[in-house]
């Protein structure tokens, strides 16, 4: 039940649902929050906040908050069970998975024509063309996606709804190496890593999907969890094919569920060894939660200042990395 529910919510992000109701919000600060008028009570000043990462809402006016199912319960006056049935029905009509697939495929084709992107990957130690293809790595030069997709017959509105195009009509991803985020086999989001000065990490609005390359790694009895796809790429390249990533240190409930579905699985957590120890603290916290779900987890320490990507780019060998795994805590 828990997993089905998460899957259902991932398929229809709260924001997408609200937009179908013509709700509109403006960014509230720097984070993933939008604020707009509350659809649950009448008001003239926006106090309804939507967190597009967590897929949660909260209204400071009427005090209501929760996830998509809670929103449907409140707005449609349905029970929890009825709300789920209602959502199941919506699911088929609401999502346009082919649109994200098309965008990912387009970006993937762009990569070969953009030397600056290949050069960036090279600098990050990702050289194997077969691997680049296998990870469906793409590149968003910016400025040409809208034309391509509208030529394919997609409406501007559907592009905006998916977050591929911003409200000014420009491509949302600009000068970014792109990796598709999947839920099961469907592309549900795109992660863009800036190759320039822009903020390094960017997602489109909506949930980030499951663990990266999950279908490929789920059968391993030992898994290595890293922060980003570029960490994953260097590890796959040298043979640690049992590596996955959650696109950041925060796992969604669904990703946590994936990681803990097999209790006999051993998980090595290899987050950034940053100065302020934030990555290590998060890793220990996650290891603790996994232990609570009866999944043994070990926290791997890399030399100071390194993440798996910079460690290999800096000349580490697979044997060096294997030593780090060997010394992971607790043994
Ligand atoms: Zn309200």
Write a structural description.
41% of the residues lie in helices and 17% in strands. The chain is of the alpha+beta class and 331 residues long. The chain folds into 3 domains: 2-94, Alpha-Beta Complex (DNA Primase, Chain A); 97-203, DNA primase DNAg catalytic core, N-terminal domain (Alpha-Beta Complex), CATH 3.90.980; 214-326, 3-Layer(aba) Sandwich (Dna Topoisomerase Vi A Subunit, Chain: A, domain 2). The strands form 3 sheets. A 5-stranded antiparallel β-sheet has the order 1-2-3-4-5, covered by helices on one side. A 4-stranded antiparallel β-sheet has the order 6-7-8-9. It has a 4-stranded parallel β-sheet with strand order 11-10-12-13, with helices on both faces. Helix 11 links the parallel strand 10 and strand 11. The longest helix is centred in the first third of the chain and has 15 residues, at 80-94. The chain is globular and about 60 Å long. The mean pLDDT is 90. The protein binds zinc ion (ZN).
